[in-house]
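Session log. Operator J.P. requested a structure for one protein chain; no other inputs attached. Running the standard single-chain path with C-alpha cell output.
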Amino acid sequence: DVDDVVLCSMMEACLRTGHLDLLPEIIAWRPDGLTLTTPLYGSMIKAFGQAGRIERVWGFWQEMISKDVQPTAITLGCMVEALVINKETDAAWKLVQEMWEDESQRHLVNTVTYSTLLKGFSD
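Structure written below.
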C-alpha cells in the first residue's frame, strides 16, 4: 500500500513539472482519501493558480480550512498570488482583510502579502 509521504512526493513532482493532469490519478490510489499537508496545499494552490484554474484554487483553500489544516504565511502568500495573477485582486484583498481581522491569523499577513496585493492593484 502506498503511503501519504510517497503520494505527496509524487504530487509535488507533478506540480513542479506542470503535469496537473496526473494529480487525480495519483489521488485515486488512496480511495480512503489523502492527507495533504500545509506546504502541499500551498503548492497545489500555486500550481493551479499559474494554470488559471481559480475554481480549484478556491477549492483547495476551502478544503484546507474545513479540514482544520492551518495556513502559514507562505500558504496565504500562494493564495494571494494565485488570485492576483488571475485578476482577482479584489478577492485577494478581501481574504487578506479577513485574515487580518482574525487575531489568530493576523500574524500570517506580512510585507510579501501586501507587496503582492500592490502588484495586483497596479495592473
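Operator note: Residues 52 and 113 are 20 Å apart (CA to CA).
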